[in-house]
């Protein structure tokens, strides 16, 4: 269940640091990040519209540090997924614990005789073993990766998808469900939706053009090098 006004999980309260654009500016300042009105507005809208914010700009302007400062200001874990060429769902979403499944298979093999010894027919024996098939693909055998880990944080989290432009174009398709609905679907288990307040930050150095499907799901923020006045404030801080 989500709140219609903010899209946040039902019953979740807006943190004081996200209550207004001014509150965001103050929260970031306490974390040592000097935010322009555009930056503070983007963070405010990202929470209240429940949309990821895609931050573009040259390297070294504070894109990653913004996510880190928001997490610090909200006292929430920062879960970072560093993108690179060849990144796939087993490293970003989840993977199965094959070693544990193999061990369970061996245990089941050793016990299978005891399980079916009372069966009068092959159908009855298969029926007794049916319940064990699903255990191999239960939550106990699932290893969450950054995207699923962030969604499962009951107290909320800040998810940083860093340098998305370094990943393959095909990888963007894996992100669409997370960016649209803040959820991950595991075919064998169903859908895992965000349990707490989730704020998603996607960064790009614009080394390649991102797909329209990804960009449509995000708010856009461009951070450029600071002017002399802002740089002086940063140095003084």
The CATH homologous superfamily of the largest domain is named P-loop containing nucleotide triphosphate hydrolases
Q: Report the end-to-end length measured between terminal Cα atoms.
A: 42 Å
Beta-strand percentage range = 15-25%
Helix content: 40-55%
Question: SS-based structural class?
Answer: alpha/beta
Using the coordinates above, name the CATH class of the largest domain: Alpha Beta
Spatial ordering of strands, largest sheet = 2-5-8-1-9
Give the CATH architecture of the largest domain: 3-Layer(aba) Sandwich
Keyword list:
Rossmann fold, alpha/beta, two-stranded antiparallel sheet, single chain, 237 residues
Note down, in words, how this protein is organized.
- By secondary structure, the protein is of the alpha/beta class.
- It has two domains: 16-93 and 145-236, P-loop containing nucleotide triphosphate hydrolases (Rossmann fold); 96-139, no CATH class.
- It is 44% helix and 17% strand.
- It contains ten helices and nine strands.
- The chain has helices spanning 21-30, 37-48, 63-74, 89-92, 98-116, 122-135, 146-151, 169-181, 212-216, 228-236; strands at residues 53-56, 78-82, 94-96, 142-144, 157-162, 183-186, 190-193, 198-204, 219-222.
- The strands form three sheets. It has a five-stranded parallel β-sheet with strand order 2-5-8-1-9. Strands 3-4 form a two-stranded antiparallel sheet.
- Helix 1 crosses helix 2.
- The longest helix has 19 residues, at 98-116.
- The model has no long low-confidence stretch (mean pLDDT 85).
């Amino acid at each position: 269940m989500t709140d219609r006004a903010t899209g946040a999980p039902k019953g979740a309260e807006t943190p004081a640091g996200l209550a207004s654009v001014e509150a965001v500016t103050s929260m970031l300042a306490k974390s040592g990040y000097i935010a322009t009105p555009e930056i503070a507005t983007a963070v405010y809208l990202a929470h209240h519209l429940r949309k990821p914010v895609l931050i573009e700009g040259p390297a070294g302007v504070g894109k990653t540090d913004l996510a880190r400062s928001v997490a610090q200001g909200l006292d929430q874990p920062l879960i970072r997924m560093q993108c690179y060429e060849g990144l796939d769902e087993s490293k970003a979403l989840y993977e199965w614990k094959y070693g544990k499944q193999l061990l369970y298979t061996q245990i089941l093999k050793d016990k299978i005789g005891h399980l079916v010894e009372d069966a009068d027919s092959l159908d009855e024996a298969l029926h007794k073993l049916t319940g064990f098939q699903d255990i191999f693909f239960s939550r106990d055998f699932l290893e969450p990766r950054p995207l699923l880990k962030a969604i499962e944080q009951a107290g909320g989290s800040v998810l940083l998808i860093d340098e998305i432009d370094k990943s393959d174009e095909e990888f963007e398709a894996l992100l669409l469900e997370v960016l649209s609905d803040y959820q991950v679907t595991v075919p064998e288990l169903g859908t895992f939706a965000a349990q707490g307040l989730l704020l998603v930050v996607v960064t790009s150095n614009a080394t390649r053009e991102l797909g329209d499907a990804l960009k449509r799901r995000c708010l856009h923020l461009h951070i450029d090098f600071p002017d002399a006045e802002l740089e002086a404030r940063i140095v003084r801080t």
